[in-house]
Design a protein that fits this description.
It is built from 15 helices and 21 strands. It has 518 residues and is an alpha+beta fold. The radius of gyration is 26 Å and the shape is globular.
Length: 518
């Protein structure tokens, strides 16, 4: 090859390489430091300190200002590359699918719900049911009372048919009632008019433009995405979604979603409790009004909102977005931390550079971690039970046997549940990650078709000794908010086992008793 041809080839290679780098860079949000974007690092530090002292277990946090990530952190063993169960934050994505369908004139928010499912209507269609529109589903004002969700998804296989058979006792559009099955109906309608599940409908329209990959979504027994829950995304994906709404549907100069839909979807449609006292309205972020599968917040903000503290908070007046994953018993108290520490940290103008403070913030963000079990001193008992298998009488947990192996600060536990063996590795003073087909704690664990088609669950395990006879096994299901803790108390050739689930702290189940099998 001549030197001239070689030079052309080399320049072409550099050009293609630069293009690849540019593409890689655009898949992530740009980064900056807080002061450059008019945010006080001290305010973020104060938020993290308050979070550490609170009753909330934070898993991840991302703070955007002017479209740039200025702070991000994950509490080990949670990681940036992991998806996280969104629970009802999924609803905002389902509503966005409706927005795309409306913009493509596939449907209208004024379309009657019964028009999409003529083959599964009840024998008698009531006047209120006949008047129910898509916009009533979107605004949680379908008119049913009580919410039929849990009873339906646990007991029935045809959720569409069951929803349509539930009495509509209020005129649609007049009374707010949080109804997750209504969101599921939006998913069913999208699949009916497009021929594909909501997740597949959104992939080319929403997820691909925002460079969101690896998502998954639970389904019902008929292969319809659950809509009101079940979507799993990474924290940065959540932040991108919030930023898209903040930018009125624009992304990198391209129109992804009509600004008119953003406006319609994020403005007040109905009050949750119009007769509530003003003092309650002033103190609650659940009394500011409901939009289309989004909530209005105090301080002129709006949010996507999921059980146990999954938040995408959009702050138009501050040009900011905050994404949080967590497990909390008090979601109002969690969001109060945002208003108390992060909102005041946002200033109108850029702030003076503060290298020392910013270094402190970065160190704090990089060192976030959940507490590990106390190591304790159980070495004598560990040596006695290592290699032993305990057999259990028939029980509600369907636990047949447990086996323990201890070596090099690691505990390997094998459990036979029904006819399936599940193996876990847990570290002493560290988390050991792995995968399991055993499904962990979940708010909708009993729903039919739950987890069907999803990959094995990712777990992080650690163990310690509460005392010399009690082994504590902690399993974080790190793509969900929840944790399973197994306490094993040994006495001679017997073991007593208690299972505790972080999302059901008051659900005390009978301890299981096992005996060493010969």
């Amino acid at each position: 090859m001549s030197s001239r041809k070689f030079g052309y080839a080399f320049l072409l290679f550099l050009f293609l390489l630069s293009g690849c780098k540019k593409e890689q860079l655009t898949t992530s949000l740009p980064r900056s430091v807080p002061e450059k974007e008019g945010v006080s690092s001290q305010g973020i530090i104060d938020f993290l300190d308050a979070a550490a002292k609170s009753k909330h277990e934070f898993h991840s946090f991302m703070f955007l200002r002017h479209g740039k990530v200025i702070a991000e952190g994950w509490w080990d063993p949670y990681k940036p590359e992991l998806k996280h169960t969104l629970y009802s934050t999924s609803k905002s994505f389902t509503a966005t699918a409706v927005g795309f369908a409306v913009s493509e004139k596939r449907l209208s928010v004024n379309d009657k719900v019964i028009s999409f499912f003529p083959d599964v209507l009840p024998d008698t269609v009531s006047p209120f049911l006949s008047e129910m529109k898509i916009k009533d589903l979107l605004s949680m004002s379908a008119g049913q009372d009580p919410d039929p969700t849990i009873k339906t998804v646990v007991n029935d296989s045809n959720w569409v048919k069951t929803f349509l058979a539930v009495p509509v006792v209020h005129e649609p559009g007049t009374k707010f009632l949080y109804n997750t099955l209504a969101t599921y109906m939006l998913s069913a309608i999208i699949q009916k008019v497009t021929g594909v599940k909501v997740i597949d409908f959104l992939k080319p329209k929403l997820f691909k433009p925002l460079a969101i990959e690896g998502m998954d979504w639970e389904v019902d027994p008929h292969g319809i995405n659950t809509g009101g829950w079940g979507l799993r995304l990474k924290t940065e994906d959540m932040a991108k979604f919030g930023q898209l709404f903040l930018q009125k549907g624009q992304w990198h100069g391209n129109r992804v979603l009509p600004a008119s839909w953003i406006e319609e979807a994020t403005t007040l449609k109905i009050y949750q409790a119009p007769d509530a006292p003003q003092s309650k309205k002033d103190s609650s972020d659940w009394m500011q009004g409901y939009c289309y599968q989004m909530w209005r917040c105090r301080h002129n903000c709006f949010r996507a909102d999921g059980a146990y503290g999954q938040y995408i908070i959009v702050m138009p007046d501050q040009d900011a977005v905050i994404a949080i994953t967590a497990e909390t018993p008090d979601m109002q108290d969690e969001i109060n931390l945002v208003w108390e520490y992060l909102l005041p940290a946002i200033k109108k103008d850029n702030l003076a550079e503060n290298t020392a403070l910013n270094t402190t913030l970065k160190q704090k963000l990089s060192s976030l971690k959940l507490p590990l079990p106390e190591a304790g001193n159980g070495s004598v008992v560990a040596s006695q039970i290592s290699g032993k298998t305990y057999a259990f009488e028939p029980n509600d947990k369907h636990l047949a046997t447990m086996n323990f192996q201890f070596k090099d600060n690691m505990c390997k536990v094998s459990m036979m549940i029904d006819s399936t063996r599940y193996n876990f590795s847990l570290g002493s003073g560290i988390w050991i990650t792995g995968e399991t087909t055993l499904r962990g704690p979940d708010l909708l664990l009993l729903a039919k078709a739950h987890f069907v088609g999803l990959p094995p669950a990712k777990v992080a395990g650690s163990f310690g000794w509460g005392n010399e006879n009690t082994l504590e096994l902690v399993l974080h299901f790190i793509e969900s908010p929840h944790t399973e803790t197994i306490a094993c108390k040994f006495n001679k050739n017997e073991v007593t086992v208690d299972f505790h689930y972080s999302n059901m702290p008051n659900n005390i189940q009978p301890a299981l008793k096992g005996i060493i099998r010969d």
